[in-house]
């Protein structure tokens, strides 16, 4: 009997160590587990609109309220990249079988040293995987914004945006939304008044521009 108890205890410890090790190895593992827990409590309805991407979505606390008429599901997670969005595509997107996927991702890829070409390739990989799993879904890509704190990456952001826009223009049931140009001043520079102190994340005034540009493309 004792042997059986110790065996079970050892098994539980090994599983716990394995899970913790897995969490440490995979970035944003805990964020994904929080989404899964939320779903276990109240699973969103299928055939709605999923927003997937990085902190510009994560910090948009009013996103689901603003787009409640479209039954928006916010699955932005931390400082994530396109590569990480693709890695968690099952948990972030396919689990909800959405009719539309709205993406904001790529800015962090470039900020961590990924070239415009590599960022473009990561987007294409993500897009193709989305299309395989959701052949009839509408896919929306929101252009990367120029952030005042990341102006040294401006050329790469512009180049990647251009490449992604051209790619999407050749796809069926896909849209590229240019928010970046609407956030620049007459000299083509980012408007600091749209950003919080870190000059990376947006104030409500910045999100107001996004709402105006995104809303006409959302599917009810």
From TrEMBL:
A Pfam family the protein falls into? Lipase_GDSL_2
Q: Which residues form the SGNH hydrolase-type esterase domain?
A: 59-209
Alphabetical keyword list: Signal
Species: Pedobacter panaciterrae
* Protein name per UniProt: GDSL-type esterase/lipase family protein
Signal sequence annotation: 1-23
InterPro entries cross-referenced by the UniProt entry: Ester_Hydrolysis_Enzymes (IPR051532), SGNH_hydro (IPR013830), SGNH_hydro_sf (IPR036514)
